[in-house]
Amino acid sequence: xxxFGFSSIKPRVIDYDRNNRAVMExxxxxxxxxxxxxxxxGCAATCSAAQFTDMSLRKLNILIKRGExxxxxxxxxxxxxxxKCTLVCPRGVNTRNVIFLTQQAFRxxxxxxx
Amino acid sequence: MPEQYDRHIIIxxxxxxxxxxxxxxxxxxxxxxxxxxxNEPGGKVINWYQLFPDRRKSEEVLKYLRDEIDNPLINIxxxxxxxxxxxxxxxxxxxxTRGVLTAADAILMATGFDLFKPERKEEYGYGIYDDVxxxxxxxxxxxxxxxxxxxxxxxxxVGIVHCVGSRDEKVGNFHCSKVCCxxxxxxxxxxxxxxxxxxxxCFYMDMRMFGPYYExxxxxxxxxxxxxxxxxxxxxxxxNIEGRLLVKVEDxxxxxxxxxxxxxxxxxxxxENSLSGKKIAGSLDLEIGINGFxxxxxxxxxxxxxxxxxxxxxxxxxxxxxxxxxxxxxxASVVEIGRYLKSKEKRVVL
Lengths: 114, 350
Known about the structure:
The complex is a heterodimer.
Chain A: E1 14-15, H1 22-30, H2 42-46, H3 57-66, H4 69-76, H5 84-88, H6 95-109
Helix pairs in contact in A: 1-6, 3-4
Chain B: E1 8-12, H1 16-27, E2 31-35, E3 50-51, E4 56-57, H2 58-68, E5 74-77, E6 82-88, E7 91-96, E8 99-104, E9 106-109, E10 113-115, E11 132-134, H3 135-144, E12 157-164, H4 179-194, E13 199-204, H5 214-223, E14 228-231, E15 236-239, E16 245-251, E17 256-262, E18 264-269, E19 271-273, H6 275-284, E20 311-313, H7 323-349
Parallel strand pairs in B: 1-2, 1-9, 2-5, 9-20, 11-18, 12-13, 12-18, 13-14
Antiparallel strand pairs in B: 3-4, 6-7, 7-8, 10-19, 15-16, 16-17
């Protein structure tokens, strides 16, 4: 079939009712402090990786909660698990464990050997 | 008999502010006429099921207010609206729907607030969709014992919209109504408690947890009750083909627009200066601030005084306040009224 150069663009809108939030449920179950994030951005400000990449744990937390998995996948591997964010968090969220569990959840989802 | 017994103060409004001030002034020996347009004292406190932050029953505070005005020096007129107040020399002539009251030595405006009319935010569909309700209507549902949609079933998901009629130039209100954020948190908890299977989402611009134990309640909502918070102002609500409400908002922390279906949408309607209070203000030449509430003489140390000597303010006719601050403000007005009346006495003696 002849191609005319058209392609469909994936909508940017978060379609909450269609998204899969299994990763969020996995984190909530294993690290309940995840619920306490207030989006202050303290974690992102101190993040070593954020100095050189677009890593933002503040944003990642929200994307996980909304089930925006493609972006979560892209961002989660930028973390070096240094744990500075955990020292900063005013709500006592175990942020390092959140990232760790996110990576673990995707390995489980993708059926990788853990 | 102390001198005070001759002094007569007219208080307009028998809500939290009016009842508190009336009780305290009567204890100090002043004669009080308390005028209320509704058929019972208590004002907007009557609307509540439970109060933030401790979720006590509103009846407890109502009882306190009604006990306060149980005093032979207080004469309460219910179902009575003040039409005008005119100052003649140092005395005030008050005309009500039930006739002219004897001249008063001082006036306390405790006229309170009106709730923002949510029809004015047409994009939220209040009055168009049956499952768009106000925070006050949700309190009524709590009173009835359960929260159901217009179809008579428990909602699977409830959305709560903060700042409806507040911080919104489009409806002419720049001010923050202060209590709606914590009300949303309280109501979200109550929904989760009554209907554990129901998801709750709060759509907020800022979480303004200004009072004692408010931030703790917010934390409890997240930690214990699993309430979800999305930072963004809802732009519109519409009904889809299945009769569910579709909410559009920017998830500002994700930096993306978001759409979500809910079964019940609760609008946290804000406070505006009451229309009935503003009408009286016209006859007294009271100044109105840019926020629509009465202008106080000084924002820091004179927020019970008006631009008219002998006319005082208590409560939410000057600014949005919670019940605690309203009661404190009303108590403070008692000191100012006493000082004013005593200064008058001295002048007579001299």
